[in-house]
Amino acid sequence: GQNIDQPTEMTATEGAIVQINCTYQTSGFNGLFWYQQHAGEAPTFLSYNVLDGLEEKGRFSSFLSRSKGYSYLLLKELQMKDSASYLCAVRPPNGYNKLIFGAGTRLAVHP
Amino acid sequence: DADVTQTPRNRITKTGKRIMLECSQTKGHDRMYWYRQDPGLGLRLIYYSFDVKDINKGEISDGYSVSRQAQAKFSLSLESAIPNQTALYFCATSDTGGAYQETQYFGPGTRLLVL
Question: Which of A41, A45, A98 is opposite residue B103, by nearest beta carbon?
Answer without folding.
Answer: A45
